[in-house]
Design goal:
Elements (H helix, E strand, L loop, with lengths): L1 H7 L1 H17 L1 H8 L12 H10 L3 H18 L4 H21 L5 H18 L1 H4 L17 H19 L7 H29 L1
Helix pairs in contact: 2-5, 2-7, 3-5, 5-6, 5-9, 6-7, 9-10
């Protein structure tokens, strides 16, 4: 079957793993802003977009909950093991964001959210064998190779590093914080190099 060939191809597996990282990371900036209780935009409330985000911000805990949901979905995707659950959660959240960007006529943003929607559907199709039993209990589960533990560990390192980089302020921070930022950046780069070198070595 064509899907089985695509699913078992090592290069395709590598692409999906990093697509999960990329899509998961996409929720971190906006999610952390909400989770920390900060405003998402400085647009005036005279603008419908600014008015909308200010209303969400004034909702209190709901604003923080939105951020927590986004971060949770991103982390689940980056763990690889729970990526299917993360993709489903991501789809639920992103669908709302996508409709908002279209209905409020965000300039250019709707293009980005549309591309993100396509990426999420690709991830869901990739794990369709895990989702089909939800709609048909008689479906025979097909086993496919899953990402090795190293990819999950790498995802955890990426997630922790991204959160740390957001909390640390490279502009207002002191020299100690700037050193920490440098360390986290190095950790991300080294993790990327190590995991991909290991994957390349195992393939050859």
């Amino acid at each position: 079957m064509a899907f089985e060939k695509l699913r078992t191809n090592r290069f395709n597996q590598w692409v999906i793993i990093h697509l999960r990282y990329l899509v998961g990371f996409a929720f971190f900036p906006s999610g952390l802003v909400k989770l920390m209780g900060n405003r998402f935009t400085g647009i005036s409330t005279d603008n419908p977009i600014g008015y909308f985000f200010e209303a969400l911000y004034q909702s209190g805990f709901y604003w923080n909950f939105l951020g927590l949901a986004q971060i949770t979905a991103g982390i689940l995707l980056m763990t690889q093991r729970f990526a299917a659950l993360g993709a489903m959660m991501f789809l639920a959240i992103l669908t709302n964001i996508w409709i908002i960007t279209i209905s409020l006529s965000f300039k250019g943003t709707w293009v980005i959210t549309s591309l993100m929607m396509i990426a999420v559907f690709v991830l869901l199709i990739w794990d369709k064998h895990k989702l089909l039993p939800l709609f048909n209990y008689k479906t025979d589960l097909k086993e496919y190779p899953e990402p090795k533990t190293a990819w999950g560990i790498a995802g955890a390192i990426y997630a922790v590093s991204c959160i740390a980089l957001y909390i640390l302020d490279p502009v207002k921070g002191n020299s100690y914080e700037k050193w920490l930022i440098g360390i986290f950046v190095i950790v991300i780069v080294l993790t990327f190099i190590f995991t991909n070198y290991k994957a390349y070595k195992n393939q050859n």
